[in-house]
Amino acid sequence: MSSLKLPESTIPLLTNPTSCREWRQQIRGDHKSVGFVATMGALHAGHLSLVRHSKQANDKTVVSIFVNPAQFAPHEDLSAYPRTIEQDLRGLEEIGGVDAVFLPGVKDMYPFGIVQDVEQQRGTFVEVKGYGSEMEGRSRPSFFRGVATVVTKLFNVVEPTRVYFGQKDIQQALLLRRMCSDLLLSHPEPRNLHIVPTERDRTDNLALSSRNAYLSSEERKVANALYRALSLAKGVWETGLSKSECVARSRGFVESVRDNAGVEMRLDYIELNDSDSLEVVGDDKTKVDYGTRPVLLSGALWVGRTRLIDNLILGDPALLGILDSHVEVKV
Amino acid sequence: MSSLKLPESTIPLLTNPTSCREWRQQIRGDHKSVGFVATMGALHAGHLSLVRHSKQANDKTVVSIFVNPAQFAPHEDLSAYPRTIEQDLRGLEEIGGVDAVFLPGVKDMYPFGIVQDVEQQRGTFVEVKGYGSEMEGRSRPSFFRGVATVVTKLFNVVEPTRVYFGQKDIQQALLLRRMCSDLLLSHPEPRNLHIVPTERDRTDNLALSSRNAYLSSEERKVANALYRALSLAKGVWETGLSKSECVARSRGFVESVRDNAGVEMRLDYIELNDSDSLEVVGDDKTKVDYGTRPVLLSGALWVGRTRLIDNLILGDPALLGILDSHVEVKV
């Protein structure tokens, strides 16, 4: 941000790691708890829900806004990704503000620079092997390496007591919790990584996402097909049918929507994964094999040129430490 | 260590991350500086030199002893690596002690376990791309990933003000300094990663190493051939000849020693690398191309079944922040 003019705000803006550390240092003396919400900006009600959870449980709350180049592949939407900083600050002000917004520049987070071509990258990267290659990692092979790397840096600067991630990015949240355990982090301790349920459109249950802004009005009308397909699969699972049946029926549902949509739609995947190892659930497995043990039912759907993701938890979400339940409507 | 009987010592022994954090927390209140020396045990005068540097500059000094499985390849000497904990503590006591020794077990550092086969590894790893693949990384492709990973964990637990690494492992020291910069660490800040000159045998200048214990008496007699070859190459470089000439002559020297040695010797490599990027110096480059800018002259030599490494700095070692110079003798 250092080269840009800073927007006006009642919220203190910390534009580099040094000023963020100074801010943090002041809090430390008072032994106050610090809640942290890491974002790429383009804030919506989902982000604000994370911020509310943080404000409720901590003395201080800091939000970071940083569009992280390392988690975009060269063909992905880094340059198009919405940057709405003024609007983001207004949104935070409207819910009563936060104690600080950390707005670093790319050069602050990557002192030696960063290129998007993985082959050309140099310097330090954090990888969560096994976790990062399943689910979203199959379609986006170096995405989670970029996420784990930037979040490690953010945690090192902010040194938060508690952190909040959205269930919409469930794989990210579970992977980062594993990372906190593996790296013996105490800022935050792994148990203080909290997962907040996905916020959805009140009318049609589309999961809120910054990328929804890309959708045309025609695309928007069918964008909840993924949510409806996942809900269908969840219903099928509850009846005791096998995983392959769940996936087949939900795929069939998306195809039927697509055939009548009038817009381009392509299902990337719908899959069930073990919530512990993230391994794919066997084709013939059923609810009986898992009991209350949580299973991740997730998918990605292209609508036009926009890639949407969503997930539901099968089994008991409380066992994943998801903070509270959200209302789901039937298909 | 938790399953082993603890040796007697006047030095406080911290056997897991929790007790180490508690120790660190007490220091924090007093705003005292903490120096840290990470070791795999089998301490020799090289380690003790690091400890002395730390004691000189910090209020408190902590030494870790942990043989890190992740930096050994499956065919390497993990199980044979010398474990001499009682003797290590005596050595530390003899130089006036330290404030704590951190002795974690494998399960403490790798809560989900660790296997040595890289393909089978799961969980979080830290990699310094570019840096870890040159020099030692060519012979030991996942060595530095193991080092960077365990050192990240150790830094997260100890939160040191200053850290000390030996010049003998110059690539490790430079790679970890880059890692501290990249990950925006403040415990330690990158400028507080100090490099201490290599300690050598007073008689024949063999670099001190825990692995020297593997050498038979016949092998020990010719083990300084690498140091002598590097010194020869340094002399050749000073006269203005090209890199390829330096390497060729030092290789020739090792071959001549080998032909008369009566023990098995095999040169792994002798190479010159840029101290900034770690890239290999071009064959036709000379001292004129670098001036005082430091160049790493390093090598690895197998003597019997023991792999020895050593290095010298061409140019000005102070530009690498190496603490003070050491005496070198002529071949």
List keywords for this structure.
331 residues; ligase (chains A, B); globular; Pantoate-beta-alanine ligase (chains A, B); Rossmann fold; alpha/beta; three-stranded antiparallel β-sheet; Pantoate--beta-alanine Ligase, Chain: A,domain 2; disordered C terminus; 2 domains; homodimer
In short:
2 copies of one chain form a homodimer. The first copy, chain A, is α/β, with parallel strands linked by helices.
Can you walk me through this structure?
The structure is a homodimer of 331-residue chains. Chain A is an alpha/beta fold and 331 residues long. Chain A folds into two domains: 13-196, HUPs (Rossmann fold, 3-Layer(aba) Sandwich), CATH 3.40.50.620; 215-320, Pantoate-beta-alanine ligase, C-terminal domain (Pantoate--beta-alanine Ligase, Chain: A,domain 2). Helices cover 34% and strands 18% of the residues of chain A. Chain A is built from eleven helices and ten strands. Chain A has helices spanning 17-29, 45-57, 85-94, 106-109, 136-139, 143-158, 170-182, 217-222, 225-238, 243-259, 287-290; strands at 13-14, 34-39, 60-65, 100-102, 123-129, 162-166, 193-196, 265-274, 295-303, 306-314. In chain A, the strands form two sheets. A six-stranded parallel beta sheet of chain A has the order 1-4-3-2-6-7, sandwiched between helices. A three-stranded antiparallel beta sheet of chain A has the order 8-9-10. In chain A, α6 (143-158) packs across α7 and α9 (225-238) packs antiparallel against α10. The longest helix of chain A is centred in the last third of the chain and has 17 residues, at 243-259. Mean pLDDT of chain A is 94; it is low at 325-331. The interface between A and B is medium-sized, with 30 and 30 residues. β5 of chain A pairs antiparallel with β5 (123-129) of chain B, so a sheet runs across the interface.
